[in-house]
Amino acid sequence: MDSTVQVLLALSVALFAIGLLGLVIRRNLLVMLMCMELMLNGVNLSLVTFAHQMGSTVGAVLVFLIFVVAAAEIAIAIPIVLLLVRRKRTLDIGAFTGLKG
Amino acid sequence: MTALLQNLDTLLIYVFAALALVGALLMLVLRQPMRVALALISTMISLGAIYGLLGVHFIAAFQVLIYVGAVMVFMVYAIMLLEAREATPTGRFSALALPGIVAALVLVGALGYGAWHGFAALAGAAEGARFGIQQFSVSFLNDYWLHFELTSVLLVAAVVAALAVIKAGRRTHG
Predict the structure, then answer these.
(1) Which residue range is the domain that position A25 belongs to?
(2) CATH of the domain at A46
(3) Is B78 close to A78, i.e. CB distance below 8 A?
């Protein structure tokens, strides 16, 4: 069972790093949002793995709070992206370099 | 028989872990946002299967219900709405691709080292104690009720913020 736990932790590390990498290197706004979701999923996996290993409910509670935060995040992020696209007619992140401050 | 079933569980966990990793890697290279969304959905479903195999079925159910059922459906609608409006297709990678990959490899190394070696000392500390939805619910609503209520405040704030964003866009756009 220990090796399973270690594999799952390695997977959660990989998911988080891939999400961060995608956030940095991709140009499409929607793809960047999805990469943020992937990072949250990686964190969730590590929390569930630790909660399972420790037999404690704290990790599961935190996972539920992260679900709520993810839903709230996407509910705010999508309208913002809609407004940005309405203004510039493109999903390319390079078009929004004027957004400062 | 039980040993065989346990081995099967472990094998299935490995299979779904590989599927999740493949889906995540595909997210980096696929060009069209809809395909990226499908790759992310397959990753999330694989994670849900892993949660189910670990025995925390209620988290698996909510993973599928909330992430795949709500968040990703919303995302797919947004993609369908925005793809039609976009004049020119965007390039795939930004100029930061190479330094980003190097930095991500460093991050994987550091986090992986910490997870692999730091956990070896911890392993086996409190193995065996399992919890079901009953312990979870009691703990959730007895010990963490304040956090639960605070998430409702967060959701109200999110709804108000989304309405404010839409209204601000309408005002500037005429």
Answers:
(1) 2-96
(2) 1.10.287.3510
(3) yes
> Would residue A10 count as lying in a domain?
yes
What percent of the residues of chain B are helix, what percent strand, and what percent coil, each to the nearest 5? Answer: 85, 0, 15
- Which of B13, B112, B136 comes nearest A10 by C-beta? B112
For B42-62, write each residue's pLDDT tens digit: 999 999 999 999 888 889 999
Task: Show the tokens assigned to B126.
Answer: 């409190």
CA distances from B12 to A4, A5, A12, B15, B153 (A): 11, 14, 17, 5, 39
Kindly state whether residue A101 falls inside one of the protein's structural domains. Answer: no
Q: Provide the CATH topology of domain B1-86.
A: Four Helix Bundle (Hemerythrin (Met), subunit A) (1.20.120)
Mean pLDDT in chain A?
A: 87
Q: What is the pLDDT of residue A34?
A: 93
Evaluate if residue B68 carries a pLDDT over 70.
yes
Predicted ipTM of the assembly: 0.91
> Which of A:23-82 have CB within 8 Å of B?
24-28, 30-31, 33-35, 37-38, 41, 44-46, 48-49, 51-58, 60-61, 63-65, 67-76, 78-82
Residue A80 to residue B165, Cβ atoms within 8 A: yes
Secondary structure of A22-63 in the HEC alphabet? HHHHECEHHHHHHHHHHHHHHHHHHHHHHHHHHCCCHHHHHH
The reported pLDDT for the residue numbered B1 is: 65
pLDDT at residue B3 in the model: 76
